[in-house]
Amino acid sequence: EEVRKFKPINTSIKENPKRWWAFAINSVLQEHRNENRPFTRKFLVQRRRNRLKYIKLWKAKLLKIITKEEKISLEKLEEILEYEDILFFRSLAEAQIEVQIEEQPIKINNNAWWDLSTYFNKKDDINNNNEEEE
Fold this sequence. Notes:
Number of helices: 5
Helix content: over 70%
Largest sheet: none
Distance between the termini: 78 Å
Shape: elongated
Mean pLDDT: 79
Number of strands: 0
């Protein structure tokens, strides 16, 4: 998936073997570059910034509160980031949303249909108490 950007579009191997050879070479070189990239302080700081920004934007997209500017920013980040990073950052964002949902107190709507059972149970209890008193 991460080498998808090198893949020739709308051309077969027979039509343009040179482009397909370039695709194969670039795919191998990209894998080699990823293994040998320097883990400098600058790289790690930038990765952290990208991670935090991507998670924030992805959460906004999932919650359907994303603006047009944020959507454009998300698309730009997806062009920069590697495929594995995108998957990892999305899983982090989804986990954060799940935690937020679990931590929120549950608000029950008093007009909800399931609350009618509570109403009828209370009414039955009142009737039972009246019968016992007689």
